Amino acid sequence: MGFFTDLWESATPWSSAEAEAVSGSGTDSTPAQGGEAGEGEAADKNASDNKDDDAEEPEEEEEEELEDPQEKFQEECKESKQCSGPKHHFDECVERVTGASESDDKKGPSEDCVEEFFHLAHCANECAAPKLWAALK
Amino acid sequence: MLARSSCLRAAGAIRNGAVTVSKRAASTSTTEAAASPFRLNLAGGAATAVAIGSAAWYYHLYGPTAHAMTPAEEGLHPTKYPWVHGEYLKTFDHQALRRGFQVYREVCSSCHSLSRIPYRSLVGVTHTVDEAKAMAEENEYDSEPNDQGDIEKRPGKLSDYLPSPYTNDEAARAANNGALPPDLSLIVKARHGGCDYIFSLLTGYPEEPPAGAVVQEGLNFNPYFPGTGIAMARVLYNELVEYEDGTPATTSQMAKDVTEFLNWAAEPEMDQRKKMGMKVIIIGSALFALSVWVKRYKWSPIKTRKIAYNPPQMGGKH
Fold this sequence. Notes:
The complex is a heterodimer of chains A (137) and B (318).
Chain A: H1 2-11, H2 23-39, H3 45-56, H4 69-79, H5 84-102, H6 114-135
Helix pairs in contact in A: 2-3, 4-6, 5-6
Chain B: H1 2-15, H2 17-28, H3 31-34, H4 37-62, H5 71-74, H6 94-106, H7 129-137, E1 140-145, E2 151-155, H8 169-175, H9 187-190, H10 194-203, E3 220-221, E4 229-230, H11 251-266, H12 270-303
Antiparallel strand pairs in B: 1-2, 3-4
Helix pairs in contact in B: 6-11, 10-11
Enzyme class (chain B): translocase
Keywords (chain B): Electron transport, Heme, Iron, Membrane, Metal-binding, Mitochondrion, Mitochondrion inner membrane, Respiratory chain, Translocase, Transmembrane, Transmembrane helix, Transport
Catalytic activity (chain B): a quinol + 2 Fe(III)-[cytochrome c](out) = a quinone + 2 Fe(II)-[cytochrome c](out) + 2 H(+)(out)
C-alpha cells in the first residue's frame, strides 16, 4: 500500500512537501540556545543570542567593516546627473541658511532646508531602490 | 447630380434669406423688434457671459484646494520598493522572516511589544516546534491559582503570547520620555505606506538634520515621520545582530528582514490567501470555459436553424 501511495505522490506535482527535513540542523542548535539564554535575564537576551551564534559559524568571520549598500547607492545617486537639480537646490539652500545664521541678521524670515532635503532624498531613493533590492538578500 | 441640386437649393436659400427673415419676424412679433437683431445678439451675449462668469466665480470659490500642511508636517512619502512578497504569486521569504524575527527579538523587543503573536504561530513559519518551545520556556507567565489561591509563575508554553516589554501603556510612556512605542503586531497595516514606510523610517535617519531644521529636545530627525520629529532614535547599525545563516547584517538588510517579518505578523494568512486566490481563478476560469461550451451546445439548434419562405407562384394558373 505504501509503495503505491509513494508512487502516486512522486507522480503528482501537487503532492505536499514537508518542511521537517530542515529541522535536523535546527533542533541541534536548540538546546544550546535554550540553555544559554535561559540562564540570563530577559534583559541580556541579546548578548546571549549573539554568543551562541558565534560558536556555530566561525568561518563567516569578516575582518573588514561592513558597508551598507544603501548608503553607497544613495551617495552615488545624489551625485548622479538625475539628481543634479535637487542637489543643486539643496546645496544652495544649505549655503544660504548657514550664511544667514552666521551673519546674525535676524531680520529675514527663518528658513530651513527640509523641503529641499525631501526632494533630494526622494530623488536619491527612487534611483537607489532597485539597485538596493538587487544587492540585498 | 445630387450635389448639384443641393448647391442650387443653397444658393436659392441665400437669395431668399432677407425675405424669409422678414416673413418669420412678421409672423411672431411687431416689425419694429424685427428691425433690430442687435437686441437679440445682446441678450444671447449677456446670457453667455452670465453662464461663463458664474462658472468662473464658482471655480474661484471652490476650485483650488488649500494645503494647510507644510511638506515637513506631511513627512516625506516613502519610496516604493520592489518587495518580492508583494507580488501576486509570491510568498514570504521564510528565511527573511526568521532573520527578521531575530532582529525583532534582539533589537525591537526591548521597547515594542508584539502582543498578538503567540509562539505557536512561529512554528512552521520561522522556527521548528522544538525551537519555539525552547524560546517560550525562557519566559515566565502567570499560572493558574494553586490550592492557596496564589498565582505562581510557570515557564512559557507554545500557546503563550510573546512577552511585552512593559506591563501597560503608562509604564511604556514613563520609560520612554512620554512617547508610547506602538505595538508592532499590525503596524504594517496600520501605517500609510506599509512596508515601504517601515523600511524607510528605519533606514531614513540622516547623519544630521538639514540646515535650519528645528528638532525638539528629546526627539530625532526622521524625514519619513510626519512632523519629522520622532522619539525613537536610530537603532539599526551595521552588524548589530549576527545572523545565523551568515547573511551580512547591514542596516538595510536588517531593516528589510524585520519589515518583512512585521508584514508576516500583520498578515500571517498571506501565503494561504494567495494560494486560495489562485485556486479561485483556476476553478472560476474552468467553470466559465465550461459555461461557454454549454451555451454553444444549448443554442446550437437555434443558431443553426434555417427559416425558408416559399412564396406562392404569382401570375400562374390558379
